[in-house]
Amino acid sequence: MKRKWKSAEDCEEGPVKQSRQTSHQRSNKPPNLKSDKGVDNVIARTDSRLLADYVAQRTKRFEGHLSLVELEKTHIPEYAILDTSEWAAERHDRNLASFLEYFAQRALTLKCLERVVIDCSFLDQKQRSIFDMKETQRPLLEILNQPGLKARYTEASTSVKLLFY
Question: What is the pLDDT of residues 8-17, one digit of tens each?
C-alpha cells in the first residue's frame, strides 16, 4: 500500500486532487519537502517503516538484475532503523553534532557500535540524495549488509540501529 503524502495546506483544505504523478510521487517522496538549499527534508519526516520501504524501492531500482532471493539478502529491516522524525532542527551539516549527541552515538568499533548515521539530507545539483544515485546507494548497501553488522540488527542485547539524518 502506498501512502499519499499531504502538505500541511492539503490537510486543512481537504482531500488531495488526483492528478498526473510526477517522478517524486512515484518514488513515494513528497516533493514539497525538498529544499532549494541542497537539503532533503523528506527523510526528516519519514518513519522507520517508510524508510525501510524507500531503501528497498531504491535497491530494486538500481539492482534490477538481482533475483528476489538476492534482493531479500540486501533488505534492511524496519526494526534496524531508529525513528529520528522527532528531531526538529533543520538537517544541515552544522546540526549534525547535536543530532548525534541527541541520539547518543558512542564508540565506532563494531563490537561497541550502537548507531549508524546515514546523512540523507544532502542533495546534489540535480536534487538527488544518497539513495537516488546508483554510485552512492550501492556502496552504502554493501556496508550496511556486512555480515558482522547485519547480524546485529536483530540481536536484542547488542542491537545496532540506523539513523537517517
Answer: 444 444 444 4
Evaluate if pTM is beyond 0.70: no
Distances (CA, A) of 7 to 4, 33, 64, 88, 138: 10, 8, 32, 17, 31
Q: Give the chain's residues under pLDDT 70.
A: 1-37, 105-109
Alpha-carbon Rg of the chain, whole angstroms? 17
CB 130 within 8 A of CB 136: yes
| Alpha-carbon dihedral 49, 51, 55, 60, rounded to 10 degrees | 50
The mean predicted confidence, pLDDT, of the chain is: 78
Question: Is 65 strand, coil or helix?
Answer: coil
The total number of residues shown for the chain amounts to 165
